[in-house]
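Changelog-linked ticket: 4-nitrophenyl phosphate example.
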Amino acid sequence: MAGPSYREIVGALEEILSIERFNVGGVLAGGRLLVPAFREGGVNLYSYDYRGSGGLAKLNRGRVNWHVEPPYGARRVVFVRDVARGREQGVLVRVDVDRPGEEPLAPGLEPMRIIGAADGGVTVAFTASTGEEAAVYAAREGEAWRVASAPGLPIVTGVEGRFAVGVYLAPDKPGVGRLLVADLEEGSLRFKEAGGGSVSHAVIHGGRVVYAVEAGEGAELRVLDPASTEDAELSLPHRDLEAFKPVAFNYLGFTPEGRLVAVARRRGRSAVFVDGRRIPAPEGVHYSAYLVDGRVVFSHSSLKSPPSVYESDPETGEVRVLLSGGKPGWLDSRLGESAYVEVESFDGSRVPVFVLRSGSAPEPGPAVVLVHGGPFSEYADEWNVTAASLAAAGFHVVMPNYRGSTGYGDEWRLKIIGDPCGGELEDVAAAARWALESGLASRVYVMGYSYGGYMAFCALTRKPGLFRAGVAGAGIVDWGEMYELSDAAFKGFIDLLFAGRRDLWAERSPASYVDNLRDPLCIIHPQNDSRTPLKPVLRFMEKALEKGKSFEAHIAPDMGHAITTMEEAVKILLPALLFLARAEASPGGP
Ligand code: 4NP
């Protein structure tokens, strides 16, 4: 059966990447909105005058990696810029929302891997890693200082005055999040355990810390006075949030009046709440949300609709689109139905799986098991450029939330600790078998990026024959070599993931099983990747070459792990789509 031509695949990818993706990142002075958008070739920041002219004014000049949420009414926006061509050596840049131009926030600060940051208006608190240590820092106009170091992974998510709050993943309890409270003036850190759960997010307002705790199969909000260690369950004026039974939170924030805005999720779909009251919003995933003049502005997407900004009026129930990139008509017919299913794995566990059918593939037809990175991340009913491109290229897309994924409770997430390339690979395999047995798939391929690339390498070396071919993007092949090339934060992460079991590294490294390689493999790797370095993958290729294995490899120059421009997305996705199309077109298998 002939699938789409190369020309159609290239054209579809270009059109999908050209769809403008709009988010909302804060409320600026004069009631304007901060709109981070994938537009004009990549991620850019805009000031959106939505009550006035409706115009979008671009704030940044050069590249933006990610922005720090500004406090309500801000006149400046701070963002992180990688200054090392993808090696994730970041600096903080500030832009004035009324005056063009960029300036470094703290010129004296060396570039570092910035892991989390929060803007209190004057002071920005952030966590960053060097080769030697991960630490909490603070910066304000022309001044920056190191607050204290924290072995493991500290992630700042909120700041007010002298206190910064966040999440701390410490080596002693791998994967478990504690509440982090930093006194920026005193230079001290305090940690609080969440008693049987994991802290996933924290904000501070009016001297009170509100934080989310994810436990076995649910999540709750708690409140703490940072001066003490007394905490309590947060009580809100409305009960809708409680009734929603959240499992995780996408967003927490306060309005200047102290109203709590929360986006909670369960089973890959979210809902927006203000003080616990549910706000009308379309079905799918919502990101940050803000209260402006009694209305709630939020961003939303689903597997079939790209990220757009909406406004919802809680009084009238009216929801309207403010900013949307629109989807070309042809794409509507190429994206088939989306679905959520649960698939039984080897140990009886139910693996949550999202499915996006291709509108142009038969059923059964070719299917790609797409594996997310992280591993603390998840697929959800949200826009996914890779999934949309695969569906447009004629592949059904099967997206398992293998053990280790977020969004299904702490128990499921922590099951991967100490067992990489173990139970979670079985979950990926279960999703593949489900696709074949349910009548969706005629043949299955595996594809992933980062931890998902590792899973693709694992699948082809540990389960040869299950997949017809695989694409490993920015993958991991050798934990020992990777550890040596990692900075303090990622060394900490590897130890956390293996629960300190370094004796397992070789056994769980695809480089130990090159002999098993049999199915066609497409390796795609950013040259400057500092999270999953290229070097071990080059050595893997050398071994594969020596052993006479057939593989193809694409090194993407001048980019690192993060994909923030159109160019970078093409470098990673195009070789993958063409490889899969070729594999599918070859009669009797590649
Ligand atoms: P990610 O990257 O999948 O994009 O989040 C990763 C980098 C390193 C590791 C895992 C994921 N690691 O385990 O070291």
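Closing comment: Example verified and attached. The mean pLDDT is 95. The radius of gyration is 23 Å.
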